Amino acid sequence: MTTSTRGATKVPAVLVLEDGRIFRGRAYGAVGETFGEAVFSTGMTGYQETLTDPSYDRQIVVATAPQIGNTGWNDEDDESRRIWVSGYVVRDPARVPSNWRAKRSLDDELVAQDIVGISGIDTRALTRHLRERGSMRAGIFSGEAIAAESELVARVQAQPHMKGASLYEEVATKETYVVPAVGEKKFTVAAIDLGIKGMTPHRMAQRGIEVHVLPATASVDEVYAVEPDGVFFSNGPGDPATADGPVALMTAVLERRTPLFGICFGNQILGRALGFGTYKLKYGHRGINQPVQDRTTGKVEVTAHNHGFAVDAPLDKVSETKFGRAEVSHVCLNDDVVEGLQLLDQPAFSVQYHPEAAAGPHDAAYLFDRFVSLMEGQRA
């Protein structure tokens, strides 16, 4: 990626898809070039949390909401230490941010973090194209990076696919850190960072949990050195089929019957540990308005999603695994994709979406309480 000046709203830019479709607009953020998988997010708010979500590593995110940047950028809402998207696509960037917490504009932050973007294109047409053809490799080129269309298409087609990509280690912490419990400490949890969002340990800390966030490469001995009451596996980017290390670690946790909770990538890891396969979705689920049914209660929740892969587990029966009986606990009402798993004979469950949802909704916050209940039951 190369970058350049601020105030690039008049600099021409092009978005090039691997199938040859090209959209022309104006530079937004840094000027230069970037590559990634083009995906769309349907959230109408929470763009700061989206951009700083490590699960978006190496993805060019298309905002389906027509106007982006209205609330600017603040120093409180980041979900990690940096912006992780490889590029950002918007239709109508706000000219002036308006929010009492804003410290600077979204455009300024994109420039400061060298994130190449494009504005002024028909994001509705682009989203329809990705829905019909599927998420695909793409590139954004602006200013002097623009070249002949055939050359740009060839450069995009030379980029690696998301299927088969192992990315969780490059976004995870390199050293263990601790998020203390809020108020009285009730439990200790070892959280495996596969791309964890900052709000996740905060939600647990609010429930009296001291969270030890460990690197993705943590060993079984390192996990149990913190004497955990429970183990948590986080969200993260890339293809779960490449995550043999985390699968082996989760298998060891299941063998010890320690209460276990996983979200997003963690759900896919649990699926693999139980013997199920995973597969790449055509265009994935991304946004904060996805309907999911909790099959254990029948309740329908509006939930926050960010995943391009899913678990291949049967919806119509209880499955026998080496850790006992398992069933699909949650399902997406749009397309019947598996959104959660639970073991019936030991304390372990997972969901494919994000119950911490800093930008909302908060329908699924109860899942952290369910994790607490598992640890209470095990202690009793």
What topology does this entry show?
Layout: E1 12-17, E2 22-29, E3 33-41, H1 47-51, E4 59-63, E5 67-68, E6 87-89, E7 92-93, H2 106-112, E8 116-119, H3 123-133, E9 136-142, H4 149-157, H5 168-171, E10 177-179, E11 187-192, H6 199-205, E12 209-214, H7 220-224, E13 230-233, H8 244-255, E14 260-263, H9 265-273, E15 277-294, E16 300-312, E17 319-321, E18 324-332, E19 338-343, E20 348-351, H10 366-379
Parallel strand pairs: 3-4, 4-6, 5-7, 6-8, 11-12, 11-13, 13-14, 14-20
Antiparallel strand pairs: 1-2, 1-9, 2-8, 3-9, 10-12, 15-16, 15-18, 17-18, 18-19, 19-20
Helix pairs in contact: 8-9
- Reading the helices and strands in chain order gives EEEHEEEEHEHEHHEEHEHEHEHEEEEEEH
> What's the β-strand tally?
20
Q: Percent helix among the residues? A: 10-25%
Please tell me what the overall shape is: globular
Explain what the structure shows.
The protein is of the alpha/beta class and 380 residues long. The protein contains ten helices and 20 strands. The chain has helices spanning 47-51, 106-112, 123-133, 149-157, 168-171, 199-205, 220-224, 244-255, 265-273, 366-379, and strands at 12-17, 22-29, 33-41, 59-63, 67-68, 87-89, 92-93, 116-119, 136-142, 177-179, 187-192, 209-214, 230-233, 260-263, 277-294, 300-312, 319-321, 324-332, 338-343, 348-351. Strands 10, 11, 12, 13, 14, 15, 16, 17, 18, 19 and 20 form an eleven-stranded mixed β-sheet that branches. Strand 1 and strand 2 form a beta hairpin. Helix 8 packs across helix 9 (265-273). Residues 1-7 have low confidence and may be disordered.
